[in-house]
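hiii so um. not sure if this is the right channel but i have a protein structure encoded as tokens and i wanna go backwards to a sequence. like what aa goes where. can anyone help
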């Protein structure tokens, strides 16, 4: 099964960067426009500290039942970071229109004293694809 996807690609313009890269921006999925959500929070306290994180979900089609993937890296502290990644829950309608998603999980295990952090929260309202 083929799903039509539209979007555009932007090339990195940093001439001093030896790693050539592109960013792909998806604007529609199977004929539906896509949207994203901001998400942010503070993790649980483990090994004497917590972590802050903020990012955007992966795009998903608008107007149909869906979930979003998410991935970010926590702020650097005490010489290490943690990866946060997963899949949100289904869309939850907002009274004034739009929707949000719940998310939760555990970070990767990192640090001089290996540990992870729990995290949970809800995304912001939907935003047309970035």
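sure thing!! here u go:
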């Amino acid at each position: 099964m083929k799903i039509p996807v539209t979007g555009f690609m932007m090339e990195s313009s940093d001439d001093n960067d030896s790693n050539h890269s592109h960013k792909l921006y998806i604007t529609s999925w199977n004929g539906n426009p896509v949207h994203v959500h901001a998400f942010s929070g503070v993790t649980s306290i483990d090994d004497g500290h917590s972590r802050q994180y903020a990012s955007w979900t992966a795009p998903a089609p608008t107007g149909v039942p869906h979930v979003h993937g998410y991935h970010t890296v926590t702020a650097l502290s005490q010489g290490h970071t943690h990866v946060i990644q997963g899949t949100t829950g289904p869309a939850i309608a907002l009274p004034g229109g739009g929707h949000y998603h719940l998310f939760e999980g555990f970070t990767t295990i990192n640090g001089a004293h290996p540990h992870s952090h729990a995290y949970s929260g809800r995304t912001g309202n939907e935003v047309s694809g970035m």
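oh and The chain has a mean pLDDT of 86.
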